Amino acid sequence: MFYRPENGHGLPHNPFNAIVSPRPIGWISSRDADGVRNLAPYSFFNAVAYTPPQVMFASTSAKDDQDNTKDSVANIRDTGVFCVNIVEYAARDVMNRTSATLPRGVDEFDHAGIEAAACETIDCHRVANAPASLECRLTQIVDLPGQSNKVVFGEVTGVHMRDDCMVDGLFDVTRFQPLTRLGYRDYSVITELFSLARPDD
Fold first, then answer.
1. CA-to-CA dists, residue 198 to 130, 195, 201, angstroms
2. Which CATH number is 50's domain given?
3. How do residues 59-71 score in pLDDT, each as one tens digit?
4. Is the pLDDT assigned to residue 105 strictly greater than 90?
């Protein structure tokens, strides 16, 4: 099958997310200008550079009570900081609760019963028991073609790794089993690894 997105796919559901998968989930914590905390998962998320370490996430919809965007982007635009929390399989249900569309000013940490901890390098909270958290300072927000499509880039200024995820000096993802996003309503979990050496190693 072949289709041009501009003409539609003719299928019951859009296959795009299923094709580009699995995707890591960035559980983005932020705060608004008044200090109200926000926590929301984004599957258009990834690392984009090593030195300095940088990450991105994209927001592709808007809320009626925000200016053509969602709470996370609005908060980061106002404060210049955010934290990326890595989602483990054990947190799948509580993460899903934070994806609910809630009114502006609702604290998702409180709403979902999630323990928060203060970040070290930025004025923001993180998920206290996350396998890892990346404290970030905003570098730029890029508007993409399409309605409400925005990409947020940040430089990582602090890294938290949970002690039980460290094995012989390595961050071992099998210790917490990262949750990944597929297409439709589907998710997957990483439970095993294999290694490949590059030809020039």
1. 31, 10, 5
2. 2.30.110.10
3. 999 888 887 888 9
4. no
